């Protein structure tokens, strides 16, 4: 029944059902890796109607919307899910698709490609062939890093030995993005808080035959703060922070803040001891900003399972006279949680182990006794009750209950 339906029944006069596109590589000795051709196929739009085992079932079940449209309901949703309108050749923009294909080739080192298309029509159906003349795939001849005299430029040049970009490698956008991210990670570990990866711009000199010179430059629009190394001048910890009471809590710093050697604790209820913060918060006064310390601090605090939210914020000196930043750690406590000291945790673990061992021994002995004939006395196997097991369970519950109320 279904195969008798026409897939071109609702194709408008003068148009064609678009059945797909293929890429044909032209030119003598022209070779494009299969992975790049697959990448090119993915960017071509529109996609033809879907099919299953060569049958375009959804297209065959399609009927145009009535005017006015049918009422929405179960059958309306069913029709929308299991039918497709015909994809028409007129919906394809040849110029846009040529640009898309050129972008893929350029990103993979084919800097001077040329693309044309042919349309093959057969009845009310049509397909498209893109004829690609890829040209030479360029390799990197030289890599040039920023030459400016700023601390940032010097830092980027010093990191060049860590780069995975090498002379002779194919020109490849993915490798360039990775290098830009590497630079971002490197300088953010050395105080450049305001720097972002997008401040690096690549320039390419492709005048050489099959080789390109690569220039990494800093964009002119980059703010001056991004070229400076920033230092943490103080750390304040808000141990009972909520967004609803933000203004009321933050003004407590100068009034009720408890000043320690490394930071100021703002928490009237003093939920946690100073040594807890010293173990978990890695950002310290006097340090150059380091992204990894900021991330590890958040990770450590969340891993304690004592907080619903953890947020670290930096406030730079707005006068421009120094490159100092105030660090603020905002902690929103989790409900009904407290910190378990190391001694109590060890005792709980030992008790759990003893209970587990006693339970296993009791079950094993019981199984052995039940398997024997009635004429053999259980005491022959040394079967004895585990003393005070019920009492131990009660005590274990009382120990575990308090910290997790």
SSE order and pairing:
Blueprint: E1 17-25, H1 34-43, H2 57-60, H3 74-81, H4 94-107, E2 114-122, E3 125-133, E4 139-144, H5 151-158, H6 173-188, E5 200-208, E6 211-218, E7 231-238, H7 246-250, H8 253-256, E8 258-259, E9 264-266, H9 274-280, H10 291-303, E10 307-316, E11 324-333, H11 342-371, H12 389-401
Parallel strand pairs: 1-3, 4-6, 7-9, 7-11
Antiparallel strand pairs: 2-3, 5-6, 8-9, 10-11
Please tell me about this protein's structure.
The chain has 405 residues and is an alpha/beta fold. It has four domains: 2-133, no CATH class; 139-227, Ubiquitin-like (UB roll) (Roll), CATH 3.10.20; 232-333, Roll (Ubiquitin-like (UB roll)), CATH 3.10.20.310; 342-404. The chain contains twelve helices and eleven strands. The strands form three sheets. It has a five-stranded mixed β-sheet with strand order 8-9-7-11-10, with helices on one face. The chain has a three-stranded mixed β-sheet with strand order 1-3-2, with helices on one face. The protein has a three-stranded mixed β-sheet with strand order 4-6-5, with no helix packed on it. Helix 1 runs antiparallel to helix 4 (94-107) and helix 11 (342-371) runs antiparallel to helix 12 (389-401). The longest helix is centred in the C-terminal third of the chain and has 30 residues, at 342-371. The radius of gyration is 35 Å and the shape is extended.
Task: Point out poorly predicted stretches.
Answer: 367-405
In spatial order, strands of the major sheet run 8-9-7-11-10
Question: What is the string of SSEs from the N terminus onward?
Answer: EHHHHEEEHHEEEHHEEHHEEHH
The tally of domains stands at 4
Rounded to an integer in angstroms, the radius of gyration calculated over CA atoms is: 35 Å
The portion of residues assigned to helices is: 25-40%
The main pleated sheet reads as:
5 strands, mixed
Q: Note the gap between the termini.
A: 66 Å
Average of the residue pLDDT scores? 81
Given the helix and strand composition, which structural class is it?
Answer: alpha/beta
Question: Which quaternary structure do these chains form?
Answer: single chain
> Looking at the structure, what is the overall shape?
extended
Residues in β-strands, percent: 15-25%
Total beta strands: 11
**Total of DSSP H or I helical runs spanning 4+ residues:** 12
């Amino acid at each position: 029944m279904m195969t008798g339906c026409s897939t071109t029944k609702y194709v408008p006069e003068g148009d064609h059902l678009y059945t797909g596109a293929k890429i044909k590589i032209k030119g003598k000795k022209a070779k494009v890796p299969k992975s790049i051709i697959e990448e090119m196929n993915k960017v071509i739009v529109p996609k033809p109607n879907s099919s299953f085992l060569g049958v375009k079932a959804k297209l065959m079940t399609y009927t145009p919307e009535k005017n006015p449209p049918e009422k929405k309901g179960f059958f309306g949703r069913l029709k929308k899910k299991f039918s497709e309108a015909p994809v028409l050749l007129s919906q394809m923009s040849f110029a846009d698709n040529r640009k898309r294909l050129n972008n893929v080739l350029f990103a993979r080192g084919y800097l001077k490609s040329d693309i044309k298309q042919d349309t093959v029509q057969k009845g009310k159906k049509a397909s498209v062939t893109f004829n690609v003349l890829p040209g030479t795939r360029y390799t990197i001849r030289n890599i040039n890093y920023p030459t400016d005299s700023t601390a940032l430029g010097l830092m980027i040049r010093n990191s060049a030995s860590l780069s995975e970009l090498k002379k002779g490698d194919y020109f490849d956008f993915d490798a360039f993005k990775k290098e830009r991210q590497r630079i971002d990670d490197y300088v953010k570990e050395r105080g450049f808080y305001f720097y972002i990866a997008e401040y690096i711009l690549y320039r390419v000199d492709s005048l050489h035959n099959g080789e390109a010179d690569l220039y990494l430059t800093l964009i002119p629009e980059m703010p001056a703060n991004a070229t400076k190394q920033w230092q943490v001048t103080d750390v304040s910890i808000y141990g009972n922070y909520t967004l609803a009471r933000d203004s009321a809590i933050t003004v407590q710093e100068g009034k009720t803040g408890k000043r320690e050697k490394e930071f100021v604790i703002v928490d009237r209820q003093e939920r946690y001891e100073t040594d807890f913060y010293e173990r978990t918060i890695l950002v310290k006064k006097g340090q150059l900003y380091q992204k990894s310390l900021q991330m590890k601090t958040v990770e450590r605090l969340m891993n304690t399972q004592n907080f619903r939210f953890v947020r670290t914020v930096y406030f730079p000196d707005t006068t421009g006279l120094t490159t100092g930043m105030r660090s603020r750690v905002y902690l929103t406590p989790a409900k009904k949680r407290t910190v378990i000291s190391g001694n109590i945790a060890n005792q709980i673990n030992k008790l759990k182990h003893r209970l587990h061992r006693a339970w296993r021994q009791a079950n094993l002995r019981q199984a052995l006794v039940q398997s024997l004939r009635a004429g053999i006395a259980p005491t022959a196997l040394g079967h004895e009750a585990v003393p005070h097991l019920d009492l131990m369970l009660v005590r274990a519950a009382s120990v575990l209950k308090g910290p997790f109320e």
